[in-house]
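Whiteboard transcription, Tuesday session. T.W. wrote the structure tokens on the left side:
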């Protein structure tokens, strides 16, 4: 079993970092996994060291890292030199490349209408990531549908505002949730 699943067994709430000013707070929070949604070629190794030194899982959204080409070389550099616990991407071709490199992969699906839902489900079935992150994460029926049709674990993410949203997401077949809302990081 991958560490991702072990860590969410302890705490299903993951800290999403979209501003590096949040990094220390996230590292010190009870969150066991961190989704890194920012960074660049110059600071990524230091960020990874800080996160890993606290035994936190690090999942890097490759599409949002500045200074890296979003191709095989940039991805291979991150996987083989930064050593994240996994890669997050919105791009199906990077899902395949990540899998070829042996990386744990989270496919990020933005679902804002019925067309994006159907296309998202088709893409998930075709590329078979380890986990799907559904945005926004406050759509219990959609989260359940994605999980039921793909049989892939789902993480809810985006627009999660309070404890009620956490409960709603986790009750809808999401195995965990990712949020940049610091108040949510401390909900048990």
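and on the right, the sequence the group agreed on:
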């Amino acid at each position: 079993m991958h560490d991702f699943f072990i860590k969410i067994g302890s705490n299903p709430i993951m800290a999403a970092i979209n501003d590096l000013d949040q990094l220390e707070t996230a590292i010190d929070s009870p969150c066991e996994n961190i989704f890194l949604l920012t960074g660049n070629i110059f600071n990524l190794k230091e960020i990874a060291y800080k996160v890993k030194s606290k035994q936190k899982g690090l999942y890097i959204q490759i599409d949002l890292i500045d200074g890296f080409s979003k191709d095989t070389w940039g991805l291979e550099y991150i996987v083989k030199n930064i050593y994240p616990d996994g890669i997050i991407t919105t791009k199906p071709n990077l899902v395949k490349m990540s899998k070829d490199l042996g990386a744990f992969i989270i496919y990020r699906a933005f679902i804002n209408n019925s067309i994006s839902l159907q296309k998202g489900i088709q893409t998930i079935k075709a590329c078979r990531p380890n986990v799907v992150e559904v945005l926004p994460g406050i759509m219990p029926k959609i989260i359940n549908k994605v999980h039921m049709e793909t049989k892939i674990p789902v993480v809810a993410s985006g627009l999660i505002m309070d404890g009620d949203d956490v409960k709603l997401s986790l009750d809808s077949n999401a195995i965990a949730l990712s949020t940049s809302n610091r108040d949510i990081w401390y909900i048990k």
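Someone added at the bottom: Residues 75 and 98 are 7 Å apart (CA to CA).
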